[in-house]
User: What shape does this take?
Amino acid sequence: MEMDATGKSKGQWVFHGTFDRTVDYLSDHSRILEFNPFCHKVEPLDREESYRWHFRVTDPQNNPFDVIFNIQQETELLLELPEELGAMNPEELTDEMIEQYTIGRKISWRHLPASETIAMPEKYLFEGKATADLLILPLQGERTKVDFDLQIDVQFILYPAFRIIPEQIIRAMTNAGMSLVMQTATNKMFQSISSDFGTIRQL
Assistant: This one.
């Protein structure tokens, strides 16, 4: 029986580093995914700022299975223009104006549909979908706030031993377990990143 599982994780951290340094660091997709304990490989794809994650996890019976995620990374500059400039064409903004009115950046990870079939359930290989937003905001004292929000969806084959459990119960158990795993992985990832910033405080 096929089962859809959804895992969510989120959190807010304060980096003891400048806004520009934090943005540059978190924009390095491959580097920060190396800190995720379930991600054993990140490879670039043909499109610009697109990547394939290779995750390996274990099921409740301690059997390993692999999940592939194709990701498109996008970066958005967040500006807060004064009212008199609100109707201005964005292309007319000067570098000085952009620097003056920048209030943050948002890095987004979006699911990138694969051009070929990835999932091979008979080999315990599945394709997942991941979406995430990293909202990065400057703070006083050369500190930076990072608001992280991630959702992962995976469709997999349920082992026969679990089919005797009512579907709504096993679905709730699976989603709760997956969210716990993803939140733990997120916390470990940011704790590992802190080694390059001296300290990161979780809010």
